[in-house]
Amino acid sequence: MALSRIMCRWPLKRGVVRLFAGLLASCLVMGWAAEPGTAVPQAGDGIYALLRRNGFEPTHQEIEAFLQLNQSRLGPGNTLLLSRKYLLPPAEGTPEAEQAATGSRTRHAIFGPKYEWVERKDNRLAKGVFYLVSGHGGPDPGAIGSRDGHPLMEDEYAYDITLRLARVLLEHGATVHVIIQDPDDGIRDDPFLKPDSHETTYPKQTIPRNQMKRLRQRADAVNELYEKRSSAGLYHRVIVIHVDSRAEDNRVDVFFYHHEASKLGKRLAGNIRDTFEVNYRRHQPDRGYRGSVSTRGLFMLNATVPPAVFIELGNIRNPRNQYRFIDPENRQALAEWIAEGVLVDYGESLRK
Fold it and tell me: 68 vs 183, which has greater pLDDT?
């Protein structure tokens, strides 16, 4: 089942770093390494005024780029703070902007030191905006399994696979928002992922103990991000990743839920499911695949505005399913197969 992992090995030069900081699409709201031009707002400045005063005739794309580069620096309602310096995106048509195409590398600290540099392979998801939500986190570990004396916590494995998926989507030119974040973990290659409760909800909200408040908080985070970038022509999708808990002898394949009224959510779930079936035939031809697609009235499907798919990766208590989680190459394969299904669905959306 394992697929090869993608590694970035070539060194980064200082001059190249500056070119990539203003990457217009394909950006995760975390950890840029580059130091592009900066500007300090004057009293009364909004984003539009700040950009105009610094030589821009602001387009929607430039405002999007500014928001992505400066999320952690903005005040409530994306207001500018007089005490802050703000990063400026490269103007359209400049060499810097052109460098933010295939072959560019950007740093995303959320992935951890080993995987933080991401090279864009292509622009196949250039109009894709993804909201990735890993299950549980904070005070709620989710489903719990055990193997060889080690606890297996749903939130840790769902988060690791979510980060791997985010990285693959970025490689294809997507814009990616990771809704549940842990500043300490990054992508990990250990079989047994150490549990903690450091996770927060974007941008840095403490995760509540109350289940309904937790769900509402992450749905609100998705919807608020969507409202800022809901322009026509973009492909917005929510992907929620969970690990199930059933009787130990119940081995299950990856399965999918969508909102009963969402044709786009159903199509996405079906395309990812079909991609898994193809990959199982390729890598384990004698095993078969029985993953299903169905509707379910889950909060994250009901409360998020963009089309959504809810993915259950397997039974964390089943010894056979556990190999799917404890083997880091299998976790990478899960992420890459989900991304393959997304690429299929994205292609279908362009043909409509």
Answer: 183
Contacting residues for 11 by C-beta, under 8 A, at least 6 apart:
none
Alpha-carbon distance 133 to 217, whole Å? 11
Tokens for 283, please give them.
């890598």
Does 308 share its domain with 217? Answer: yes
Q: What is the mean pLDDT of residues 204-227?
A: 97
The whole-number pLDDT of residue 70 equals: 78
Question: Which 8-state DSSP code applies to residue 91?
Answer: P
The verdict on 333 and 211 lying in the same domain is yes
Q: Considering only CA atoms, which of 301, 211, 303 is closest in space to residue 256?
A: 301
Q: How many CB atoms lie within 10 A of CB 36?
A: 18
State the Cα–Cα distance between residues 95 and 111, nearest whole angstrom: 28
Q: What is the CATH number of the domain that holds 324?
A: 3.40.630.40
The CA dihedral of 298, 299, 302, 305, to the nearest 10 degrees, is -130
3-class secondary-structure state, position 96: helix
- Please, what is the average pLDDT of the chain? 85
Q: Which position has the higher pLDDT, 186 or 352?
A: 186
Q: Residues 6 or more apart from 210 whose CB is under 8 A from it?
A: none
Res. 38: pLDDT tops 90: no
Residue pair 312/293 in contact by the 8 Å Cβ criterion: no
